[in-house]
Amino acid sequence: MPRFEPLSEEALVTIEGGWQRLGSEVGVRFDHPRAIELFRAAGQTVDGPVVRFDPGFLAAQAAFAPAEFSLHARNPDRDFIVGGDHMIFGPANGPPFVRVNGERRDGTMADLEQLLKLTQMTDALDTPGRNILEPNDVALDVRHLLRALAAARLTDRVWSGEPSSEDAARDCIRMGEIIHGGREAIEARPVMFGNVNVNSPMHFDVRMLEGLLTYADAGQAIIVTPFLLMGAMAPVSIPAALAQQTVEALAGIALVQLVRRGTPCVMGSFLSATDMQSGSPGFGGPESALGLYASGQIARRLNLPWRSGGGTLTSSQTVDFQAGYEAFNTLSAAFLAGANVCWQSAGWLEGGLVTSFEKFVADCELLDLLIHQFTSVEVDEASLAFDAHVEVGQSGHFFGAAHTLERFRDCFWRPTVASTENNDRWTRNGSLDHAARASRRWERMLESYEQPPLDEAIEQELVEFVESRATELGDPVDVRTSGRS
Questions:
Q1: Could you tell me if residue 155 is inside a domain?
Q2: 114, 159, 421, 484: which has the fewest Cβ within 10 Å?
Q3: For residues 232 and 262, is the Cβ–Cβ distance under 8 A?
Q4: Which of helix, strand or coil describes residue 147?
Q5: Is residue 287 a contact partner of residue 96, using CB atoms and an 8 Å limit?
Q6: Judging by beta carbons within 10 Å of its beta carbon (0-12, 13-18, 19+), is residue 116 exposed, middle or buried?
Q7: Can you say whether the dihedral through the CA atoms of 194, 144, 177, 216 is positive or negative?
Q8: Checking phi first, is residue 303 left (phi over 0); if not, alpha (psi -120 to 50) or beta?
Q9: How do residues 195-242 score in pLDDT, each as one tens digit?
Q10: Is residue 405 part of a domain?
């Protein structure tokens, strides 16, 4: 479908000049000696941990990243393409708390496993990402191991590795090697994402750089995502935030290309506003939507795949009207802007602090609706249905027409949560609101979950690796049955 592009050519040139000036005069801080030496060797100006970039350098480095690339799942039917006109979707990633059946509490490993099962059963989602929910009952230093193992067992999809330390990144890459046939195999055919967040403004910290460098060495796809809340980590004006977002993302992508030229990269964006009365993040507003439209234009100008800043984002504490309209405004903006990767597309509540089971299935319905809505309509003689008009004539109805009977099962999109019942039937069925119906929906889905097959030898090697590494890290675990349905 056509993209919505509100910025003029003059505006794009002005923003380009803004991010180039930021890069050359202010510079970006990198807290890792290898990063500094790579930039120094490439002829950039290095002042301690700060790198200032020659005009044109960042765009030239970004040009080495492919405009489109494939990621490969253990089930080939789940492979997908990133870039161009393709869009992929993943659920909420990062929340430490869960809301389920009206209760808000710390997330657990059991909760995460249920959410992975829901992801596997949802055609609208392509990947579980890294951490739909933080399992707070698992020791932090081994959490990445159990999350990755559960994703590998309970789904047959591409998943995202842990980027927040060199050891964690190496562990996830090793698990990818076990599943996909070794290091050479995954370097030739990338199998995972690493999402690297910029410590905005203008700063890559050591933990994120360890992950970036490790995934780049292995040739795995890297999303470089500035996290900008205007008024907090970026100026309050949208053009200033766009300039900052662009230079931060390109600085990370340039470093990836210095490590391994041609490594797949995604230009990330996460651009929202701050409530200037409370200081809290605000999601789903017009500034976020406009930022998404503009981010898409800038990424296409640079010929880079790009990640939108949402998703079904909301500041709401519960699954209510606010959660619905803020989620719709953010997600529909990502569609209109032509985002290639949409993280945070199911379950996000309370500004990203909470993953909600009810909102997970409600968001998946919204996502499925927009996928259908943004699929081009086929216009041909059959779709014009002239014979149906001949059959019905004037003042009749089309319920029994041959054209209707041939197509009624799948002619229209059907909701899985929303109600089309009349008031009498709705009352007889318990007068359930949308959140209550969503609760019933996810419970029914889990009842029908079937675990995708995984080769026994591969599973055994994964288990042995995870248990061995957990012991080395000082928190032994028994995962013979953990992460299995």
A1: yes
A2: 421
A3: no
A4: helix
A5: no
A6: buried
A7: positive
A8: left
A9: 999 999 999 999 999 999 999 999 999 999 999 999 999 999 999 999
A10: no
Instruction: Report the distance separating Cα 20 and Cα 270, nearest Å.
Output: 20
Q: Which two tokens stand for residue 241?
A: 């935030």
DSSP 453: P
Number of domains, the chain: 1
State whether the Cα torsion 293-298-302-306 is positive or negative. Answer: negative
**Residue 394 — φ and ψ, nearest 5°?**
-95, 140
Residue 387 CB: number of other CB atoms within 10 A?
Answer: 13
**Span 59-83, mean pLDDT?**
98
Question: Amino acid identity of 46?
Answer: V
Amino acid at 202: M
Q: Provide DSSP, 310-321.
A: -SS----SSSSH
The DSSP 8-state label assigned to residue 22 in this structure reads I
How far is Cα 40 from Cα 47, in angstroms, rounded to an integer? 10
Cα 186 to chain centroid distance, Å, stands at: 21
- pLDDT score for 281: 87
Q: Which residues, other chains included, contact 401 with Cβ-Cβ below 8 Å and sequence gap of 6+?
A: 388, 391, 392
User: CA angle 111-112-116, nearest 5°?
Assistant: 120
Calculate mean pLDDT across residues 268-275: 91
Beta-carbon contacts of 481 under 8 Å, excluding residues fewer than 6 positions away, are: none
Answer whether residue 483 shows pLDDT above 70: no
Q: Which residue has the tokens 């964690």?
A: 168
Asked if the structure places residue 87 within a domain, the reply is yes
pLDDT of residue 481: 60
* Residue 106, token pair as written in the block: 């710390």
Q: Is the pLDDT of residue 482 over 70?
A: no
CB 225 within 8 A of CB 269: yes
Q: Are 355 and 107 in contact (CB under 8 A)?
A: yes
Q: How far is CA 135 from CA 96, 132, 236, 349, in A?
A: 7, 9, 35, 17
Cis amide linkage into residue 311, ω under 30° from 0: yes
349 in Cβ contact with 281 (< 8 Å): no
Angular region, 97: left φ>0, alpha ψ -120 to 50, beta rest: beta
Residue range 381-390, pLDDT digits in tens: 999 999 999 9
| Residues 6+ away with beta carbon under 8 Å from 42 | 57, 258
Task: Determine if the pTM surpasses 0.85.
Answer: yes
- Tally the C-alpha atoms within 13 A of residue 1's C-alpha that lie toward its C-beta: 18
Cβ pair 437, 419 in contact under 8 A: yes
Contact 92, 132 (CB under 8 A): yes
Domain containing 321 — which CATH number?
Answer: 3.20.20.480
Number of other residues whose CB lies within 10 A of the CB of residue 136: 16
Domain of 197 in residue numbering reads as: 1-376+413-485
Spatial contact of 90 and 133, defined as CB atoms under 8 Å apart: no
DSSP β-bridge partners for residue 375? none
